[in-house]
Amino acid sequence: EELCDPEVMRRLRRRSLAHLRKEVAPVEHDVYTRFLAKWHGIDSGRKGPGRLEDAVVQLEGLALPWSELESSILPARMSDYQPEMLDQLGMLGLIVWVGAGALGSKNGRIALVRRDRVHLVVEPPTIPEGFFEADPIRKALHDHLQQRGACFLVELQRAAGAPLAEVNAALWDLVWAGLITNDTFLPLRGLTSRARQGSSRRARASLGGGRWSLVTDLIGEPPTPTERAHAQALQLFDRWGVASSAAAHAEGMPGGFSGVYPIFRAMEEGGKARRGWFVDGLGGAQFAQPGAVDQLR
């Protein structure tokens, strides 16, 4: 038997409740902002290929301007970033990129995705109405890739039977529509210097790295709704630390927060996530993994 003085027990209980109340008390926005900077490793001085892989996980599926990705977004997350490091992950088959809309003639948004999670993260692309009718070369390139699989530029130009400049324009139309991709990042880097290319040979070099392929080939069999919702829930945790309806809205997540809410509820019941009011002003239900809550405090 163990004995405890009633007053000591009262003190223990008061302190325990005070600790629990403090733990669930929401933090202010400026605290959450500092947390997010640390969560993403901004100016942390971390380096190496492993750090780049961690950054890709947190940014996975997010449509980002290509020029900003290499000039500021990735360098801010690792002190020794070099373009060759991203190339290496691509050559090892660990990551792929998918176009998500043009930003003028020399830039566009892309999403980085781990190859083994493309089917979970990337929605099957839809072909805009009249897209192929507007440019027959687009259809010729798309059909050839559909029949033959991944191809180098020289084969695509031969299949299209068109000048390089027209093939070039059609390829980028397909890229920004989310229909095709390349297994290297060389075409993206060449895009920013196209205006300075003085010869067809240089233009070919800027586009000729790697093989072009259909995004649908990367996706393969689509996942079940539950599998996709689970992947989206983990994506919110990785990116925001605290998952909320505001985060889902900022992501433009199909189905919104209500689509992933059952996943979070199941994770809470399984002890893999906690529910609470962690950040003041986010509103609604908020979920976080224990490690994120500890860092937020």
Tags for this model:
single chain; 297 residues; mainly alpha; three-stranded antiparallel beta sheet; 17 helices; 56% helix
Describe this structure in words.
- It is a single chain.
- The two termini are 37 Å apart.
- 56% of the residues lie in helices and 10% in strands.
- 29% of the residues are buried.
- The protein is built from 17 helices and eight strands.
- Strands 1-3-2 form a three-stranded antiparallel beta sheet.
- With 297 residues, the chain is mainly alpha-helical.
Please compute the radius of gyration using only Cα atoms. Answer: 24 Å
Poorly predicted runs of 5 or more residues: 195-200
Order of helices and strands: HHHEHHEEHHHHHEHHEHHEHHEEH
* Share of helix, binned: 55-70%
Task: Give the rounded overall mean pLDDT.
Answer: 88
Ends apart, CA distance between termini: 37 Å
Largest sheet entry: 3 strands, antiparallel
Task: Classify the beta-strand content into a percent band.
Answer: 5-15%
Shape field? elongated
Side by side, the strands of the main sheet go 1-3-2
Structural class: mainly alpha
SS summary, helix count = 17
Number of strands: 8
